[in-house]
Design goal:
Number of strands: 7
Structural class: alpha+beta
Distance between the termini: 19 Å
Strand content: 15-25%
Largest sheet: 5 strands, antiparallel
Oligomer: single chain
Number of domains: 3
Length: about 230
């Protein structure tokens, strides 16, 4: 993947790559409140924030790489409504202007990030990224917004409500706990992630990923070891 100016990295969660394999493979992609730009077979595509896990196939001898943006940041950079990209995968060229398509991705993102870095939405998203709030009321108070203002602004930038944001943040904490070297009991994982009990964790994991907590543990530990 390309090297970007330092300012662009303030918008990124991580850069990633999947090396070419000799046989076809598939893997799960789980909700994480992020959007990606993916480079595959000579073209870029945008992967919108997901509300459900989905499987991706990787053909033999195909390299894939991507930029995973912090929650809401890619919608801010591109000036798009995140609700229209929710659970979607689209060619990037369909979402930017003709003049933008003539620029390199590095230059385009650098220009857009420089223009948006002082916006109120950028400041809001940075605060949101570091928030540990687990209730909508606490999140709104922390961000100095009314619940209605929070709903409106997050809907545009993330694609969904603060409630969905918090559900997916809890799932992210579950996945982080399941990837630890020690095998934590699921009851402890539930407490760490902010669920009321193990049954609550199981219901939410199943609803968001279609997997049981045990199957999710196996999946995320396998991916970590690859």
């Amino acid at each position: 993947m390309q090297t970007f100016p330092k300012i662009v990295y303030n918008y990124l969660e991580v850069t990633w790559s999947s090396p070419a394999v000799s046989i076809a493979q598939s893997y799960w992609v789980h909700p994480d409140n992020c959007m990606d730009i993916v480079y595959r077979q000579g073209s870029y595509s945008l992967v919108g924030a997901g509300t459900r896990s989905f499987q991706v196939g990787l053909e033999p001898d195909t390299e894939v790489s991507g930029l995973r943006f912090r929650p809401g940041m890619l919608a801010l950079l591109l000036g798009i409504d995140a609700t229209e990209q929710l659970d979607q995968r689209r060619p990037l060229g369909q979402l930017i202007s003709a003049s933008a398509r003539k620029k390199t991705l590095e230059n385009y993102l650098s220009e857009r990030s420089d223009k948006s870095k002082d916006s109120s939405d950028y400041i809001l998203l940075q605060q949101l990224y570091h928030s540990q709030a687990q209730e909508v009321s606490a999140l709104a108070k922390e961000l100095y917004l009314s619940p209605r203002q929070l709903q409106r602004r997050l809907k545009h930038l993330l694609g969904y409500s603060p409630i969905v944001w918090l559900r997916i943040q809890r799932l992210r904490r579950v996945i982080s706990a399941l990837q630890l070297p020690q095998l934590l009991p699921l009851a402890e994982v539930a407490v760490r992630a902010g669920y009321s009990d193990q049954a609550h964790l199981s219901r939410e994991v199943k609803a968001l990923t279609s997997l049981s907590p045990s199957a999710l543990r196996q999946d995320v530990r396998f991916v970590q070891d690859v």
